[in-house]
Fold this sequence. Notes:
- By secondary structure, chain A is an all-alpha fold.
- Helix content of chain A is 65%, strand content 2%.
- In chain A, helix 1 crosses helix 2 (25-38) and helix 7 (120-127) packs across helix 8 (140-155).
- In chain B, a hairpin with a 7-residue loop joins strand 7 (268-275) and strand 8.
Amino acid sequence: MASKHGRQAKEQAVTNLLKCTRLDREEISLLIDRFSDLCQKEEGKLHRLEFRDELNRFFNITDDILMDRVFRAFDKKSSGTLKVEDYVQGIGKFLNGTIEDHVQLCFDAYDLNNDNYISREEMFQLLKSCLVKAPTEEDPDELVKELVEIVMKKMDKDHDGRVSLPDFRAAVEEEKLMLEALGKCLPDEKCKLTFQEMLRMSGGRYSSANSVSISEQRDKNARRNQKGHQQKTMIF
Amino acid sequence: MGQTLQRAAQWTTATDGHSGKLEFSSLNEDLLNTVLNFAEGPSGKSPEEGKLVFKKPLTWTTALKPSAFSGSGYIEKGTSVVSEATSPKDACPLLELSGNKLSVLSLEQAENVLRVAGDRKMVELRACLEENKDPVANMLGDRFATVDGADNSIFRYHEEITKEIELLSKQSDESEEKKRELEEKKLVLSLRLKLLRLDEHMLNASIIKITNDVRLNPKIVDGEVTVLKQVSGEDNNRYALQFINYFGENYVYQNGCRAQPWRQLNGDICYLVIKCFDVDHPLYVTANTSGYYLNKGPSKEKSGQLEYERPDSDTYRELVTMIKAKSPHFAEMISKQEFNVKQTKDRDFHLAVAQDDDQDLETTARSEHHQHHYQSKEQTQQGDKDRKKTQPTRTKLEPSLKWKNLSLDDEQRSHKSDRKPTKKASNIHETRSRSTKTPLAEQEDHFSESSTESEEEEEAIERRPEANADLPSEYWQIQKLVKYLKGGNQTATIIALCSLRDFNLTQETCQLAIRDVGGLEVLINLLDTDEVKCKIGALKILKEISRNTQIRRAIADLGGLQTMVKILRDQDKDLKCLAAETIANVAKFRRARRTVRQHGGIKRLVHLLDCVKLNSTVMTPEMEMSVEVARCGALALWSCSKSKKNKEAMRKAGAIPLLAKLLKSEHENMLIPVVGTLQECASEPSYGLAIRTEGMIEDLVKNLKSSNQELQMHCAAAIFKCAEEKETRDLVRQYGGLDPLVGLLSSGTDDKQLLAAATGAIWKCSISPENVQRFQELKAIDMLVGLLHNQPEEVLVNVVGALGELAKDPPNRMAIRKAGGISPLVNLLTGTNQALLVNVTRAVGQCAEEPDNMIIIDKLDGVRLLWSLLKNQNRDVQASAAWAICPCIENAKDAGEMVRSFVGGLELIVSLLKSEDKEVLAAVCAAIANIAKDEENLAVITDHGVVPMLAKLTHTTDDKLRRHLAEAIARCCNWGNNRISFGKERAVAPLVRYLKSKDENVHRSTARALFQLSKNPENCITMHEAGVVKPLIKMVGSRDEDLQESSAGCIGNIRRLALANEKARYS
């Protein structure tokens, strides 16, 4: 790894990536190191499961469908694995992206069949599991359908029964909160900070000691979230 | 049945230490029978209900022997017996008899006991009820205990059960135990309902019984007679009766009876003569306590006496029934219900009717009593026909909801209108009276309000749409969305929040709908979670709906403020902004402001003000954001700054320099909350000083020139409040603030608040003579005089205040006259606003210094108006009026004659010397000094005892009072033997002490008084003893010629006395 050739190649990669991300040199370098640490199965290629693990651990994205969808959004060439460029660019958007980057990423994630439109069916698929407490008398599917209609009403600007990227963009411009209206696929500020901290602390190295502390942290996060949610539900 | 046992059943008074016994009356017998039927018979009880275990056993002393329970199901243990059946919970036997104490834990067992008791069951039941006065509480728990007034326990219980059922159905896999518990609760409810029905049944039965026993009394009789008098007259087509009258002398005894005392012993109340159209001879009726019956008519032997025996045995409970029986015509007319009613002058009978009804139904609630009053009042206004329908039959006197509402509304309305005038009363008066009005607990923040607007908000009445009114479609849509909020994860929550925002949240229906479907709780709960987006979404909604006063209260009640204060420390700036803005909305009432302070919110809000740079040329979005945070912080502080303690907290948190920095901003939306806060706080002296020293006056003046009226208004108000200090006034002038202030007057704005603030600032600024100069140049007087017409009182107070200050400069007095200001000023003397009166009297007083003005004032009868203001309750008004009177007397022609023409005026002003207020006393002394110039008036006030009253005041240490008091004494010496009287009242020695005062004015008037007094030798001796010579000699050396002269005169008098004394000794 530490060979001269390797270092040169890395320098080259960093310079290339510098052009197409909003990250600085150091961050890119750290991310590249991080990438090679993550690739346990096959060098230079990050597999889906490994990436999912990462998403789950640091970015608090837990929905199965959406984790896969984010993977696909990162995987520009649809090769089934992530290259180092894919990873760095994707994470770069995560950490430092513009609103437009985020809109594109979320839209790609929500557009399950990659036909450049989000249809009612896709929305249903995405929102299916979001009613935690099944209300008593009503059919849960009905409730989800109504929810889909609410979203449709807000997003479908041209009233063609499906949401295109311009529709989505307009809706987000109107109300920023709509960006993740169909499920969480971006990290929040706290996760970003934790991740960046982790990168800097470990130099991208994925040491076991670190992983413990991080996973602890995550556990804590999870517990806190849970608690928050419990609090929420308890009162109803 | 608890109610019946407590109210209807007749208890003997408990004399033997323990609970009372049930009387052996037929009423009680009936009650017991009903209860017995219920306990024994099946009467709708289900077997489950019978088995329901009581919360506490019913225990009583029984006459039953253990042996009686010999059947199966009971175990005999010596002298005690227990049942085999036990309660499932703690295995307690359901029946236990030990000694003569019997405890029963279920209805089934109670039934058993009654069966076993056989024909003695009544005795057992009686004992049971006597010892357990509230059996329902024992059986079903204390929550159902019989209480007075509205009993909601059943409803609450019902709600609880429904809730649990809901819960249970949701958690379908819950344990069996819960279900059982629920079943039991249902049982309890159904049993309770049955008992309630029993209770009702018994109450009704007893009411019927009781009414049968009610006896006549004079009031009832009078009532009936009065009613019948109305339907009697000569025309048999129109009236039901020819006449009805009392028989005998028209003497009414103290107990209301008209019958002779010896007949009263027989129960007679009065005697009536009734003439019907179709009965030949008049009917003579005896009204006895047992009812109405016919008597034999006037006695032939003794005139004016009746034959009291009754010819037949018929006794009627009502007079109407009786006449109906005797006269078909009457009965017909009554049923036709068409005849005239004489207008009556005596309206008292309505009351009588009402009371009469009350007695018929002892158990009717008090509220009904009121209704009767309202109803009967209403009846007098109704047409004749209606009256006929309701009164003689009396069936229509049932309570109707409509009347109830009407009466309540009326009460509220009158209550409101009572309060309004007090609110309008001046602030001075309010703060004084408040301390006595409010309970101690409330006092904490009471004095801290700087604006009355918040006060009004406290009283905002909850306006709820009627329960059965149609709900708007938004209501249901909002309910749906709130359901998603409750039951969804963050994604669904965010969708629901965004969708909620699409409603018109400024509409009250939507705001209240969110609250009514329980949305507020969820929104506030969301603030407690970790989801930033949810928090933002929730706050965006809360920010909008918190414009509604009811929502504000609800948010505060749900603890929303505490959470929002916590959020103020969040990293996310959006969140901080929203939280601060919401706090700004919620903290519009006192309790909320206190909550914010108590949870450290003030400190955090002040921290928000600290933003990097305001007006740098390049603004990154981040910098703009931090400016926005500061703006929101200022908004919240503005709301909070209405409480005194919050102002203090803000100052301690270092808000002033931060506000000073923000004041340099160029944006109106930033400046308005900042200046608003400053304006609110400026009433505190510490802020006033800080505003000057932090250099904020310059910015305030700059913003006076802004084009935004609201901003101008707040700036002017801030200057108004700060300009009590001379330095501030000077600064305003130096920064050129006077011109824009006057400019605001001429802008012809309709904004009354702006006018009030601007005129207020002018008022305070014109306290400095230099400023008066500038105002003169700007021709402010003409504009101010123009504002004396058609302005609200807030503006008038300040306008008149300003005129009063400006009129201290003589040329301005003329200017006011020339601008035509005198007449409106004098007219304002008839007002009631006390703050305004203080200013008007001052202004009129200043104007009166000019003789030409005085002519106009006199013509307008202004002095009389001033004089009558001496009677005002407010001391400030009294003092100010008395001051104003002085120049009037000085400058009026024939002042003495004018003063004498006020009837009782001199007596009034002398009586004000009893006031406790120093300012009033000083003013009155000054006025008296002026009055006393006229000899005749001096004679009158001497008669009113002015001398001893002035003498009593001489012990004061207040220099202002001393000065005018000495002046008054000096002037009053000129009549009769007043000099001697002052000496006798010991006024001389204290006066000598005045010479030690540091005030030159005191010296002058004191010297004058001493000179006058020294014309009496006795006084000279007293003065000399008090050591007057030394200070007087010093004063002879004064530069003030007046003082020199009177001091010298006084010394001369003393010396002359000494010489005469010597001469007398040696000659």
